[in-house]
Amino acid sequence: MCLKKIILAGLCVVNVALAQTKLYTEQYRPQFHFTPAVNWCNDPNGLVYNNGTYHLFYQHNPFGNVWGHMTWGHATSTDLLHWKHLPIAIPEEKDTMIFSGTCVVDKNNTSGFGKGGKIPMVAVYTAHIENVNQSQHIAYSLDDGVTWTKYNSNPVLDLHKKDFRDPKIFWHEGKKYWIMALMLPVEHFVQFYSSPNLKEWKHLSNFGPVGDTSGVWECPDLTQVPVEGMPGKKKWLLQMSQNASMQYFVGEFDGVQFKNENTTNEIMRPDYGPDYYAAIAYNQLPAAHLPTAIGWINNWYYANDIPTTPWKSAMSLPRTLSVKKQNGQWLLIQQPVKKMQQLRNKPAVISKTVVTGEKILQVKSTQFEMAVTLSPAAGTTTCGVKIAAGNNQYFEIGYDAAKQVVYTDRSNTGLTGFNVNYKKMSRYETKAVLKNGVITLHIFLDNSIAEIFVNNGEAVLTSQFYSNRENNGITLFSNGATTFSNIIFWTLKSIWKQ
Ligand code: FRU
């Protein structure tokens, strides 16, 4: 090797080492949300639990920090908090990208992929050939998801369509067969199929078009969830993504057909903020574990342009799922998984306070969790909490009494001009009626991500924004008199530094 090459090679090693030590300390890097170490990610894929390990596969571009070369990335966790990066699971192949899908542990070896007593993990994903075809393929792993072999008789389902994607598979105990839910995106249909062996699929039924059909439908997720306050009772939750937001339906699934029990004049969303998409629930969790979903924190209207490097996009906090009946509708209740509490540092309990105007709290951070109850007196039209406050900037979480909505607004935060859509999409709201005169907010701020759970998980708003970390203040505000009570604040530990 010539001297020049030796020096260059040396410099590269130093650069890589430097880059690695700095990873996860970058300005906008979330500290308790999953992000890939480098490069782009979108939808969570193949969420499955096996032998004490939670798998998170995800749409990933191993070659760059924008969408492309779609491949399944892979990470695992034993607590849903701390993640270990694993090598790429299923790479793109020539002109075929590996689009979204799911995974199961085929305990009874129905697929026949198991060998020598090894239980196969089977992934089903959409093989995407740009502008030509989307069909469903399977692959299996005999080493707990680390290496994958593509089935040699793929595709297992092909309608010869350009848009036909995002299979969600799970075992239906009653019918003793596998179910696959997948999308006809343009027609706005969720299709259901069944299979005894994950290889041959029979069409069962369609659901749709209904609710929000303003964009193509993607990423269906059907999962059974408990009914709050009725031990043993369960309903089926159908979540899906469209036009950069999500919607859900709740009802019954008899192993053949999904019947929605909610009225459809009101669109019900798992998240009312701008940045929650393609969420799916874990497969094969232990019976005592609440159903748990993870979504992608980003928005197709500006996803490629967000100002983060060397990675782009994060996964939401894992959220537990249940439903309850409210005003004749099944309402989805989501809570951050309980284990999140392990990341808490010592709590700061802040005394009850009545605010007219603004009150700056003593606590400061851009990496925290905070609970607060708001009780606006008659005549108050807006009240709430400004976070990431400083240098005349802030992210606003508020209650608008006239409209009876909770809103988030990022128009007054740091960088906003990197994409015209982002700049326009700043304020988001959802209906939130005072209960016994109060609204509760459960706020998570993770540098560039705010995930807000309203009224004990009855609504969630997730939003990215890009402020300088020096803007770490918290201000209570109210234009009338509002009582802020039950205020508890915790800074949270990073999941990346152990
Ligand atoms: C949803 C989606 C899916 C597709 C994947 C491609 O965000 O568009 O429909 O499988 O992303 O990366």
What would you say this structure looks like, in words?
The chain is mainly beta and 498 residues long. The protein is globular, with a radius of gyration of 23 Å. The strands form 6 sheets. Strands 24, 25, 26, 27, 28, 29, 30, 31, 32, 33 and 34 form an 11-stranded antiparallel beta sheet that branches. 5% of the residues lie in helices and 49% in strands. The chain folds into 2 domains: 3-336, Glycosyl hydrolase domain, family 43 (Tachylectin-2, Chain A, 5 Propeller), CATH 2.115.10.20; 344-491, Exo-inulinase, domain 1 (Jelly Rolls, Sandwich), CATH 2.60.120. The structure holds beta-D-fructofuranose. Beta-D-fructofuranose (FRU) binds next to strand 1, strand 5, strand 10, strand 14 and strand 18.
Quick take:
The protein has 498 residues and is mostly beta strands. It is built from 2 helices and 34 strands. The protein folds into 2 domains: 3-336, Tachylectin-2, Chain A (5 Propeller), CATH 2.115.10.20; 344-491, Jelly Rolls (Sandwich).
SSE map:
Blueprint: H1 3-22, E1 39-50, E2 53-60, E3 71-77, E4 84-90, E5 97-105, E6 121-129, E7 133-141, E8 149-150, E9 157-161, E10 165-172, E11 177-184, E12 189-195, E13 202-207, E14 217-226, E15 234-242, E16 245-253, E17 258-260, E18 277-281, E19 292-297, E20 311-312, E21 314-315, E22 319-326, E23 329-336, E24 348-350, E25 353-360, E26 367-376, E27 382-390, E28 393-400, E29 405-409, H2 420-424, E30 427-431, E31 439-446, E32 449-454, E33 459-464, E34 473-491
Parallel strand pairs: 1-20
Antiparallel strand pairs: 1-2, 2-3, 3-4, 5-6, 6-7, 7-8, 7-9, 10-11, 11-12, 12-13, 14-15, 15-16, 16-17, 18-19, 19-21, 19-22, 22-23, 24-34, 25-34, 26-31, 26-34, 27-28, 27-34, 28-29, 29-30, 31-32, 32-33
Bound molecules: beta-D-fructofuranose.
Beta-D-fructofuranose (FRU) is lined by residues 42-43, 59, 70, 99-100, 126, 165-166, 218-219, 277-278.
